[in-house]
C-alpha cells in the first residue's frame, strides 16, 4: 500500500511539479524590458496579446490591469471586458476574458477600447497583437508581432471627482461607458452631496506592509476614488476613525472626505482572515493552558 502511495505521489510530482531554473522563471524579453524601463511607477498596462507571468511582474515591479482572477473578482472582469468593448459573459479564468477563452476571442475579434475606463484603472500602455485604428491610439511601438500603445497618463492611483450619482448595480456598466470618469463617479448606493465636490490634493502616499496610506488635503467636502478593485474585505480609516469603502464606478473604491488634511489608511482584512486569526489565537491559548496544566500535574504527581 505504501509503495503504491509513494509511486502515485512520484508520478503526480513528475507531471505537475517540475523544477524550473530561476533564470527561466525570471527571463526578460524585449517587451518586459521596455515596460520595465518606460512604465511609470503606479501606472499599469493591459495586454490582450499574452498574459505576462506574475513572477516577471514582481521581478520588474510592473502592474497589470489584466490578469485578475475573474472567478474571485467577477465585477472587475465585467468592467475590463466592457473597457475593451467585449461584452462576453461566459466562463473565463482571466480578465479580460479573451486572454483565456477562445469563445471570447471569437466573439470579440476587434476590441473597441473605452479610454476613460482604462485610465480609471491607471492604465498607460495597451499591448495588442494587431494595429488599433482608434482615437487615442496614435503612438505605438512594435516589438515583433506585438504592438504597444501609449494612451497617455492615467487618472492616478488616487483621484477626486467633481460629481457623483447613484445608479442601480444592474445598470452600472451600461451608464459607465458614456461618462467622463475623471470628473464624475457612479455609486451603487444613495448619495447626497453638494452640487460640485471639492478638489482633493494628494500630499503623500506610501505603503507600510500591506497597508496603503495616503495623506490628502481637501478645501471642502470631496470624494476620493482609489484605483483598486473593490471587495468586501477592504477597510479604511480616516485619521484613525473607521470609514466606509464604497463600491465606485462598478468595481473600484471610493471614500467620502471632509474639509482639511487627513491621513487615510486602506487595508484588506476579509472576515475570514479575522475569524481565522481569532481561532488561531484561541487554539494557541488552549494548547498553552493544556501544556501548563499537564506540566503542573506531572510536577505534583512526582512530589
Q: Whole-Å distance between the termini? A: 48 Å
User: What is the mean predicted local confidence, pLDDT?
Assistant: 83
- Helix % is 25-40%
Over the alpha carbons, how many angstroms does the gyration radius reach?
A: 24 Å
Main sheet: which strands, in order across?
8-9-15-11-12
How does this structure look, described?
- It is a single chain.
- The protein is an alpha+beta fold and 303 residues long.
- It folds into 2 domains: 23-150; 158-269, no CATH class.
- Helix content is 31%, strand content 26%.
- It contains 9 helices and 15 strands.
- It has helices spanning 2-16, 22-25, 30-38, 54-59, 74-83, 102-107, 115-120, 172-176, 271-302; strands at residues 44-47, 123-128, 140-143, 146-150, 158-161, 163-166, 184-187, 200-208, 211-218, 222-226, 234-238, 241-243, 246-248, 252-257, 260-268.
- The strands form 4 sheets. It has a 5-stranded antiparallel sheet with strand order 8-9-15-11-12, with no helix packed on it. Strands 1-2-4-3 form a 4-stranded mixed sheet. Strands 5-10-14-13 form a 4-stranded antiparallel sheet, with no helix packed on it.
- It is globular, with a radius of gyration of 24 Å.
- The chain starts with a helix and ends with a helix.
- The mean pLDDT is 83.
Amino acid at each position: 500500500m505504501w509503495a503504491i502511495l509513494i509511486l502515485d505521489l512520484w508520478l503526480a510530482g513528475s507531471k505537475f511539479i517540475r523544477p524550473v531554473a530561476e533564470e527561466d522563471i525570471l527571463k526578460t524579453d524585449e517587451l518586459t524590458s521596455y515596460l520595465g524601463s518606460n512604465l511609470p511607477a503606479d501606472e499599469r498596462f493591459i495586454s490582450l496579446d499574452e498574459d505576462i507571468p506574475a513572477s516577471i511582474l514582481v521581478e520588474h515591479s510592473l502592474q497589470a490591469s489584466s490578469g485578475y482572477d475573474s472567478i474571485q473578482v467577477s465585477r472587475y472582469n465585467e468592467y475590463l471586458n466592457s473597457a475593451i468593448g467585449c461584452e462576453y459573459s461566459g466562463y473565463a479564468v482571466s480578465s479580460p476574458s479573451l486572454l483565456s477563452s477562445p469563445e471570447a476571442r471569437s466573439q470579440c475579434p476587434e476590441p473597441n477600447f473605452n479610454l476613460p475606463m482604462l485610465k480609471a484603472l491607471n492604465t498607460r500602455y495597451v499591448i495588442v497583437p494587431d494595429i488599433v485604428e482608434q482615437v487615442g491610439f496614435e503612438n505605438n511601438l512594435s516589438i515583433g508581432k506585438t504592438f504597444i500603445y501609449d494612451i497617455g497618463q492615467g487618472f492616478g492611483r488616487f483621484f477626486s471627482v467633481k460629481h457623483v450619482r447613484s445608479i442601480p448595480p444592474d445598470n452600472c456598466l451600461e451608464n459607465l461607458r458614456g461618462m467622463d470618469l475623471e470628473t464624475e463617479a457612479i455609486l451603487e448606493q444613495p448619495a447626497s452631496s453638494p452640487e460640485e465636490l471639492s478638489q482633493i490634493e494628494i500630499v503623500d502616499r506610501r505603503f507600510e506592509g500591506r497597508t496603503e496610506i495616503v495623506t490628502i488635503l481637501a478645501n471642502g467636502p470631496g470624494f476620493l476614488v482609489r484605483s483598486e478593485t473593490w471587495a468586501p474585505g477592504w477597510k479604511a480609516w480616516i485619521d484613525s476613525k473607521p470609514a466606509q469603502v464604497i463600491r465606485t464606478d462598478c468595481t473600484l473604491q471610493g471614500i467620502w472626505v471632509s474639509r482639511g488634511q487627513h491621513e487615510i489608511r486602506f487595508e484588506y482584512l476579509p472576515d475570514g482572515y479575522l475569524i481565522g486569526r481569532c481561532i488561531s489565537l484561541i487554539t494557541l491559548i488552549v494548547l498553552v493552558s493544556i501544556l501548563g496544566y499537564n506540566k503542573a500535574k506531572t510536577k505534583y504527581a512526582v512530589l
